[in-house]
Amino acid sequence: MNEQTAPPQKENNSRKGLNKQDTLVLKIILIAFLIALSFIPMSMIRGLISEREQTANEAAKEVQQKWSGSQTLVGPVLTIPYKYQDEKGETQNGYINYLPENLHISGNINTQELKRGLYEIVVYNSTLELKGTFSIKDLIGNDIPINNLLFEQTTLNIGLSDLRGINEQATLEWNGQKIDFTPGVDSHSIVSSGISTKITPQQLLTNDSVVHFIVKLKLKGSESMQFAPLGKTTRIQLTSNCKTPSFTGAFLPSEREVSNDGFSSQWEILEFNRNYSQIIKGTHRQINTPDGYTILDSGLRYASEAIAQSSFGVNLLFPVDQYQKSMRSAKYAFLIIILTFVVSFFVEIFQKKNIHPVQYLLIGLALCLFYTLLVSTSEHIGFTPAYIISALMTTSLITFYMIGILKIKKTAFTIGGLLACLYAYIFFLIQLETYALLVGSIGLFVILAIIMYFSQKINWYNN
Questions:
Q1: C-alpha 1: how far from its chain's center?
Q2: Which helix or strand (DSSP H or E) is residue 334 part of?
């Protein structure tokens, strides 16, 4: 009887072991499914971050539209029309734009913050002084006969990208004589928007070899201040209370100093550093077309594009980058979720504890909730404090939840400590720019090595 019943007993043991192995495989598959399921709320959270960033940008644009946008200063430019005869002997109109011999711009930019709901938008008030000279030799020494120049129609034009930013009446001192500006520019000038004034032949053609000018402007704007290097030698000196300037455009400052009180910067650009000359001609002629007369403009359009490409200046926006940093941290969510689930699974194996799939799901939701806490809190107190608070709240929640599940405080606090280290590593990683990929790759390699080390201690065929 004993010999007959022995074989069935071994078969039952084999089935029992196989069932345990199948249970382990099933648990791994279920955990993998829960990890994949956690990416659904994470995609919704990334959409939320993008939406909040778009709302902040719209609020900034709305304030800028009511205050004033970014300012680009071009000028001053002398525009003088002339007459010439084309190949058919017909008289046509042409226009010459003379750029300054020397141009020195100095000014101060005072930034301030305006509130729009939750969002703070940076705007500024500036005081600028433009000094320089025009060469009389350039005016009368070109290839156009002086009798063809219509000096009585001469205008001095200053280009401004947003006229709403003019705080006070701009003043011009031309060879010691004060002249008032009027809104709008000569339609044949190289600038399309700004202020201008008439210059009489008596004011222009003096006995001196140069004419001196001083222009004083008070401009308000937002986001940035840009300049065009129109002088043979252009020098620009700026000071500001902005502590986080970003110098942009075709040229960087030759000298700069940034401190907690603001910044000071200086540019010096020569005419050889740009792709246009001091004298810019534009010819206008009318030709017959099926639709009637068409006015062709040559020279001015190219010069305007070249001037725009040579502009430079400073970006004065305070770095409101919590949304970019939140998005970068959300991209590492898969790493935190996977590692937390893997550590929980290893604890379940080594400590011989059972963690229900619903409990895994709740842990995953807590990890996802970290990012909504981060975004909502950072809008009020900034990214760094919000990250610390959100990480502490999430780590504490999961730690105490693990205490209730495992009934082992030491193991639960170990899991919480590892999670805190992981959040610290992600925070350090998103602060990096140049070495982010290198440090991230090395960190992932080390983490994978640790997982492989502990995984080899598990007997995958015997639970």
A1: 85
A2: helix 333-350
